[in-house]
Amino acid sequence: MSNPGMTAALLCAVLALAATDALAGPCGSDIAQFEAAIRASQGNPLAGLTAPQSLGADLSHQPTPASLKQAQARLKKQFAATMARAKRYDAQGNRQGCTRALAAAKRMYIL
Question: How many domains does the chain have?
């Protein structure tokens, strides 16, 4: 479910959310490293957002262009929200919350 153009646009939006605060808290350097790895992967056609297979796919239903577009939009929103949560926890000094949110974001993005 990776689309390099849409992924790049999403990445820019996520990075703009709190670029200046990236190193402010307990896991800010980890966030910055992950964002740098995402930027570095932009030319890689195998890199990008990913999600588990849907129930419909398990039942051998073929996806439609509309369902793929919806799934991609949902995944982008989820990724952006997860990264924003990691940055918010980092800004609050909540290492455990930040680490959990960042780990969830890393599971969504294949580098």
Answer: 1
Give pLDDT tens digits for 39-97: 999 999 999 999 887 777 778 778 889 988 999 999 999 999 999 999 999 999 999 99
In 3D space, the residue among 72, 54, 51, 52 whose CA is nearest the CA of residue 62 turns out to be: 54
**Which amino acid is residue 21, in one-letter code?**
D
Q: Domain limits at 98?
A: 4-48+63-110
Is the residue at 89 inside a domain?
yes
53 is a domain residue: no
What pLDDT sits at residue 18?
Answer: 46
Which long-range CB contacts under 8 A does 4-8 form with residues at least 24 apart? Answer: 4/42, 4/45, 4/48, 6/72, 6/76, 7/42, 7/47, 7/48, 7/49, 7/76, 8/42
Are the C-beta atoms of 24 and 81 separated by less than 8 Å? no
pLDDT in tens, 82-97: 999 999 999 999 999 9
